[in-house]
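Sanity check

After download, print the first record. It should look like this:
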Amino acid sequence: MKEMANMELELVESLRGRLAAVPDAHLGEISWEVGIGGRLRPDAILNAVLADREIAFVVEARGDVFPRDAREIVWQLRRYLQELDVPNRRHVPMILARSVSDGAREFLQEEKVAYHDLSGSLFLSVDETFVLIERPKPKRAKRRDASVFKGTRAQVLHALFNRPGEWVTGSEIADHADVSPATVSETFKDLERRDWLDVRGEGPAKRRRLIRPDDLLDAWRDSILAGRAKKRSRYFVPRMKPEDMARVIERENCHDDFDLEITGQFAAQSYAPFLSSVSDLTVRAFGKRTHDWLISILRAREVSDGANLVVIDGKPAKHRHRIPDEAKHLLASPLQVYLDLLEDHGRSREMAEHLRSRELAWQ
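Expected structure tokens:
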């Protein structure tokens, strides 16, 4: 509670500073948790002057606001306005937040509900006065947003993408992703807040379905491009082309004793041809045993330049994304290949978008 109170003060002071930069606007007296209409209590009512007219912002304060949060808060704010319908007094609904997501910003602008967050973004639409100041989200908010794309939570996303259009239970996804039910539950909550999941039913029968996958992929892509690329080890294999190395790996691992998958440009070319040729083979190796075996059977040596074999290390068994296709059983899934290409160099990002348009497009 103390943390929330401190954040509310920070948000109000931030709003005061932002309004000071708007011509003929300033913030006045503040009333905290004023009781209205019986048990209704908005977080604050802020008296202000806007374009030489006295108004009062009816405020709800939050941490991070996503589309579902925004809809719920707007419904609450409109309840307040019904009780505050006083002649000669203009009450304006407003959300103050640590961060407001892009989807929530779009919704609030459509609904003409004011908002301000710690990035310095501000939206006001009051009678004939319109103010829109857009700022990128704070770095801390971006890191929080990106957490859904990392670790075991990313496994949940992979499992959902592997079942496009299906209504699934949390236990089904937990089994498919090899993660705990708690991880699935927390990931689902995050996705629902962002309007990326449809929900039906209640209790054990509750099911979800992935919707707006392109929006999710856009956010995942942006998170990767803004973050730090995974470490890649680079090797040179003499007298072998990428297709030769792939054949050796398949032949020597015929019993699937070693946990690996082929990704990068070679895999993308197999799914959706784009380049006339590729110059290296990228392999995700899960565990030191697999990594060492791979280097041994290909007789590879580590180099700083001129590599034709790239190895991305992963933890054993937990991050494997092969597809159930015998002809392509060593290839990582198109989704994993797309994500790996985004972290690569050269024409890999062009190839990633081509692969996405061919293999990751949903109706």
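If your output differs, re-run the checksum step. Summary of this record's structure: Residues 2-20 form the longest helix (19 residues).
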